[in-house]
Amino acid sequence: MITTGGLTAADRPAWENLFAGYNTFYGRTLAPELVERAWREFESGERMHALGARLDGELVGIVHFFTHPSTTSADVCYLQDLFTDTKARGRGAGRALIEAVADWARTEGCVRVYWHTQTSNTTARRLYDQVALDKGFMQYQIPL
């Protein structure tokens, strides 16, 4: 059975492994100082937040998220990173993590949760199409 909850110091090695898997999937390697910064932010729980999914007590999925203001509504929650170990895929870990973020965001008074994924990420999009609305927006970036 999949359970979700906060991360503890004991989860750090498994979290680092899952976060590395997430970044590898998107073709990047994070510098150690960015990994350390993220963990510190999650520990403080003030600006960025993290939850984990556990299967039989083992951390098999992670989600990172934060809130931000909106000019047209109350605050919104951005789900930035979601990753599950291959052994947990298809067992409800991703769905459970999305639901946990939505529950957290409701409690915090947010009006919606949103996220981005690559259009080629068909496996994840099968789940996303079941739990959320595709609003049809494209993302543009200016690298600085």
TrEMBL record:
Keyword entries, A-Z: Acyltransferase, Transferase
InterPro entries given in the database record: Acyl_CoA_acyltransferase, Bact_Acetyltransf, GNAT_dom
SUPFAM superfamilies in the record: Acyl-CoA N-acyltransferases (Nat) (SSF55729)
Pfam family for this entry, one: Acetyltransf_1
Keyword Acyltransferase: yes
Domain N-acetyltransferase: 2-144
GO MF terms, alphabetically ordered: acyltransferase activity, transferring groups other than amino-acyl groups
Domain of life, source organism: Bacteria
Protein's name according to its UniProt entry: Acetyltransferase (GNAT) family protein
